[in-house]
Design brief:
With 245 residues, this protein is an alpha/beta fold. The strands form two sheets. It has a five-stranded mixed beta sheet with strand order 3-4-5-7-6, covered by helices on one side. It has a four-stranded mixed beta sheet with strand order 2-1-8-9. It has a single domain, classed as Metallo-dependent phosphatases (Purple Acid Phosphatase, chain A, domain 2), CATH 3.60.21.10.
């Protein structure tokens, strides 16, 4: 069984298109999006349209929840005026049907895998979409956040950083970000953004063997920058500049 795992699209349909083109022609049995799909980019409605067409289950991320409610739940601090303005603009691009679709995003998604394993999908962790796991996070903290999962494989996004780490009999992995892959520590501000799209493919065999492929896909970043600058979103140059660091 082969599962495509994507996360943190943040309203960049062009980057998502690059990932889907890379998967084109491959035998993929299932796909899943780990959340933060819509808010923050220049193409929120287009991104929703792509996801609806795919029909993959989508986990709700912190940015998805904030887009819908405006309620801050994490430790990132108070939303800036720019963030608030982008949220209002994003909501203005979405139809009522689009919003209902986002409301349907799920806290977690689970799949049964061959070999008696399961795949447990979340945004941060199954406990909270605000949980942060980076390569430097101590193992004890990761185990506490994720909780008892047996031999289930756990995947989460949120930190925009591809990673893999052991969890007792199993492991946790992060597929990275489709549109804003971070090139340096999350704590550094602003994080450097890679000019590629990231995702992962998990392959589970009947004998219990598992393989993870981390992928980086080149795409026309300048076209994406042009889409940002031509979108009419507030302070578009600010977002476009993240791709020029």
């Amino acid at each position: 069984m082969r599962v495509a795992v994507i996360s943190d699209i943040h309203g960049n349909a062009l980057a998502l298109d690059a990932v889907l083109a890379d998967l084109s022609g491959e035998a993929i049995d299932q796909g899943v999006c780990l959340g933060d799909a819509v808010q923050g980019g220049a193409q929120p409605a287009e991104t929703v349209a792509r996801l609806r067409e795919l029909g993959w289950p989508v986990v709700i991320g912190n940015a998805d929840a904030w887009l819908l409610t405006g309620e801050e739940t994490g430790d990132e601090g108070t939303a800036t005026p720019w963030m608030l303005a982008v949220r209002e603009w994003s909501l203005g691009q979405l139809s009522e049907e689009d919003r209902r679709y986002i409301v349907g995003f799920r806290p977690t998604v689970e799949f049964a895998l061959p070999g008696g394993r399961g795949l447990l999908c979340a945004h941060g962790t199954p406990r909270s979409f605000d949980d942060i796991i980076v390569p430097e996070t101590p193992d004890a903290e990761v185990v506490e956040m994720i909780g008892p999962v047996g031999n289930a494989i756990v995947c989460g996004g949120h930190t925009h950083t591809q990673q893999l780490r052991h969890l007792g009999e199993s492991f946790f992995f992060n597929p990275g970000s489709v549109s804003l892959p971070f090139r340096r520590a999350l704590a550094e501000s602003p994080p450097r953004v890679g000019r590629w799209a990231e995702y992962a493919v998990l392959t589970a065999e009947e004998d219990g063997g598992v393989r993870i492929e981390f992928r980086r896909v080149a795409y026309d970043v300048e076209r994406s920058v042009a889409a940002i600058l031509g979108s009419g979103m507030p302070e578009a140059e600010r977002l476009a500049g993240r791709y020029r660091v």
